[in-house]
Amino acid sequence: MRRYETRFQELCETGAIVRSTASFKKPLFLAKAKQSFLLARHLHHDAAEPQQLSWYSWAIVIHYYAMLYAAKAAILTRGYEVKSHEAALVALAGLLVPTPLEREDLELLDQAQRIFEEEYLSSFAQAQTESYVARYAAIKRYTERQVAEIEEDARRFLLKIEHVLE
Description:
The protein has 166 residues and is mainly alpha-helical. The chain contains seven helices and two strands. A two-stranded antiparallel sheet has the order 1-2.
């Protein structure tokens, strides 16, 4: 995660990552994340109209935004706010993924629940990429399986963020 340290500092200097005391936004972002997740699930599973292939693209986009809002809530717990998608990824890596030494300390203290594992960061990064492709590519088609995988990643990500916020 050290590779994100330099980029974190650069984004702070440009104002894409800023210090914040606006902790009142945490439950608002978390509520927005949950609502987005439910909307994406509805679009994916419960919509009354026969599903069209483009609906899968929008389900992926909305699942990513659910993860983004949850990430913004978690980043606020460390006293920062982000102004871009890249900044959210960099801030997650820089603020919530512990170094190997910190991870060892947490395990020694039996506080492993505080660890924001790298798999959650890579799930967020993957959803970010797929969301971009789903929004802007003219021909990309998603399968039911791909949407289900991103939905599961979003579900697990939201649960982990809720745990971090407790």
